[in-house]
Design brief:
Elements: H1 10-17, E1 34-35, E2 39-45, E3 48-56, H2 62-77, E4 85-86, E5 95-99, E6 102-110, E7 115-116, H3 124-141, H4 154-168, H5 172-186, E8 195-198, E9 207-210, E10 215-218, E11 225-228, H6 230-243, H7 249-261, H8 268-272, H9 274-293, H10 302-322
Antiparallel strand pairs: 1-2, 2-3, 3-6, 4-6, 5-6, 7-9, 8-11, 9-10
């Protein structure tokens, strides 16, 4: 979200939470909030941990949010462990509410069991099951047909990137990168075996492992889009290599891919295109960073200045990478 929405607004959170049942005791859990693409505030209902998620309507597309919930229900019906949406007092799973701070989307989800993979001792077996968990998701996705609403696609994301970059001005390098990527992805084959609704953010912190049941659960479907399945593989391997200090990283990569292939297929040609999919992720992230940090204000607080500088460094690094030709067939 834009930086101006990243402040803790407890009054707003309490106003939105009042649409659901919750325990008055233990609301100090809300102090453990986090805000990035959404504001997330934990709370309890009948002792069970749940999460309130909300964002300004200007930051989301309602069809996307509704379609996300539809897909989660499909996965749960198929036996895939995902956070269960909780109905409000009015029986709705997604609320659109006018507030003194503007119009907001709000939803709540039950917590899942276990700990994020980034917090467990990572082993070759975990890497294998991490891959299998993604392969299982793609197998289910390949058979999924939305009944009511449909998430946006990689083409829609490209359109959004173009519109956003043109509004920001002076983005010639990124727009040139966009043109190159559009040509590359337009030439790729699309079928149910290689293209479908992906998670997009299948990183270690979004995959939970429960040692008691030896089971895996996946959270945060907010970034789902229609894309080539290998896009999720690239994001997962990127998370694996960047977030863990692993010796013999190739071994873990191979274990991940072996686990994936027990549930769904991916061929070596698709894997060879991983650098191109990394460029898509970089361009998408670059545009989101630039949009989020474009507005500036006088007398910004220290943490905003620090965050803005960090985001600027990240964006400049990606911009420099775009100047390197995309050499992939």
């Amino acid at each position: 979200m834009k930086l101006k929405f990243l402040y803790d607004n407890r009054d707003l959170a309490r106003m939105l939470l009042a649409n659901w049942e919750f325990d008055d005791v233990g609301l100090e859990l809300m102090n453990q909030f986090r805000i990035s693409a959404n504001a997330i505030y934990p709370f309890r209902n009948n002792g069970q941990l749940q999460f309130l998620r909300f964002s300004p309507t200007s930051e989301k597309i309602e069809t996307n949010v509704q379609a996300e919930i539809d897909f989660i229900h499909y996965l749960i019906q198929k036996g895939y462990n995902a956070p269960i949406p909780v109905k409000s007092k009015d029986g709705e799973e997604l609320l659109v509410r006018d507030t003194p701070w503007g119009k907001y989307y709000a939803a709540t989800f039950k917590s899942v069991d276990g700990k994020p993979l980034g917090e467990v001792e990572f082993t070759e077996e975990i890497a294998f099951k991490y891959g299998r968990c993604l392969g299982t998701l793609h197998d289910m996705s390949s058979k999924y047909g939305p009944v009511k609403r449909k998430r946006w696609s990689h083409d829609d994301v490209f359109d959004w990137i173009e519109t956003t970059l043109k509004e920001l001005l002076n983005e010639e390098t990124a727009l040139q990168e966009l043109s190159i990527q559009r040509k590359f992805f337009f030439a790729l084959p699309i079928n149910t075996e290689n293209y479908g609704l992906i998670h997009y953010d299948f990183e270690l912190d979004n995959v939970f492992y429960d040692t008691v049941s030896d089971s895996y659960s996946v959270i945060d479907f907010d970034d789902t889009m229609y894309h080539w399945f290998v896009m999720d593989i690239e994001r997962s391997l990127n998370s694996l290599h960047n977030e863990l200090s692993l010796n013999n990283s190739d071994v873990y990569t191979n274990q991940f891919l072996s686990g994936y292939r027990t549930a769904f297929s991916v061929n070596d040609i698709e894997i060879s295109r991983l650098p191109a999919f990394r460029r898509f992720a970089d361009l998408y992230a670059y545009t989101r960073i630039r949009r989020a940090s474009y507005e500036k204000w006088r007398n910004e607080t220290g943490w905003i200045v620090e965050l803005r500088n960090k985001l600027h460094t990240m964006a400049e690094k990606k911009l420099e990478d775009f100047r390197t030709p995309l050499a992939i067939s």
